[in-house]
Amino acid sequence: MKKIVLSALLLVFAGVLAACGSNGSNKKEIVVAATKTPHAEILKEAEPLLKEKGYTLTVKVLNDYKMYNKALADKEVDANYFQHVPYLEQEMKENKDYKLVNAGAVHLEPFGIYTKKYKSLKDLPKGATIIMTNNVAEQGRMLAMLQKAGLITLDPKVKTIDATTKNITKNPKNLIFKKIAPELTAKAYNEEEGDAVFINVNYAIQNKLNPLKDAIEVESTKNNPYANIIAVRKGDEKSAKIKALMEVLHSKKIKDFIEKKYDGAVLPVSE
């Protein structure tokens, strides 16, 4: 009798394990951490297309840039969508345990400079305050725009992509640089805290600003290395679910959505 009961219990236990397996590791779910705009909006549009491929998409919007790669490295999500390659490389320099790779670029967000006081960068007075993001990986990106406008000169021995304010060799207008968190830049612009403010497109859009219409200067998209990517853990870029995700994000429907939705403020990239 005891043997019969024990056998029955083992069968029940085996059934529970099987059920757990079918609802856990075998579940065709893709979990992506993404910023609210435009990343999560683009993923929302991709959701039905992934469903056609048999995948359920779950999007997690986090509050801090530093949380995204940590969540990916800690296996809390399958991928993240918020950054460009220079930022990813900087993050991995600072966090040696991050083994992350670029699974593919999706779109480009041209950086803009905004001001309520002046019509062009050349109108900035001597001693003007320029508010920049404190994102080290984007310092060169912002400074390159100022150099192109003839406001500063950067050390030619330093790659522009790696440049910081320390690499400014000429600053004829004695511009003052103030660095703040990216999510605070739109507020700084609205409250006129500086003479000109660099704002990431996602925060510009959230504050109803269009870089093509409202910025006094927008960076060039030609040969631009700052396309936003899908990042994954090394090795996962070859997985079926990530391949499915990239196929959808590179589809004509998603590209058309990006072009129509953001009116040139966000641009789809080619595969």
From TrEMBL:
Topology in the lipid bilayer is annotated as: Lipid-anchor
Tell me, what's a Pfam family for it? Lipoprotein_9
Q: Where in the cell is it found?
A: Membrane
Q: Does the keyword Aminoacyl-tRNA synthetase apply?
A: no
Q: Name one GO cellular component term.
A: membrane
Residues with S-diacylglycerol cysteine lipidation?
A: C20
Keywords for the protein's UniProt record, in alphabetical order: Lipoprotein, Membrane, Palmitate, Signal
Keyword Transcription regulation recorded: no
Task: Please tell me where this protein is predominantly located.
Answer: membrane
Q: Which residues form the signal peptide?
A: 1-18
InterPro entries per the UniProt record, alphabetical: Lipoprotein_NlpA
The entry assigns this protein to a family as follows: Belongs to the nlpA lipoprotein family.
Q: What is this protein called?
A: Lipoprotein
Origin organism is: Bacillus amyloliquefaciens (strain ATCC 23350 / DSM 7 / BCRC 11601 / CCUG 28519 / NBRC 15535 / NRRL B-14393 / F)
**What's the name of its gene?**
metN3
